Amino acid sequence: MAKILIPYGTTEGQTARIADYISDVLQAHGHEAETLDLKHADHDLPDGYDGVIVGASIHAGKHEGYVADFVRRNREALEKLHAALFSVSMSADADPEEAQKYVAEFEDATGWRPAKVALFGGALLYTEYGFLKRMLMKKIVSSQGSTDTDTGRDYIYTEWDGVRRFAEEFVADLERKPAGE
To answer: Which residues pair with 51 in a beta bridge?
Structure first.
């Protein structure tokens, strides 16, 4: 049984939901997994983990700064562990090349090159936004050619089967890795 930490940053909650789902998948496979909201935690990677899956969302063209700070501060430890990154954005669904560009910028900014990276679609949570944000998001989405502009409902772009596969592949790779590597 492996012990896996899933530290993440989220602005609107979809990255937290994805981190929780990954944790559930790992636990269903007999591993110990816990999530850690980096916005409300100190930035040191706790000891005792066999693997780490870092999660971050994109807003205004960048991953959360506090997630990048966490990675920079713990890069050496992350490089010694079985570690991966998942990035959550609207681009992952609509423009994967743009989403990959955000990850490349994150890697350049932190110096960390995770062995495994996943891009997951985010969510438009119109029903949770205040009036101004709801109208701004509708305008942005419409300007990008999307028809997902009904502000009376939410749109979830996360492909949950892909999230499950990512978690299962991560743990399968971890189980194949010889001890001490």
So the answer is: 4, 82
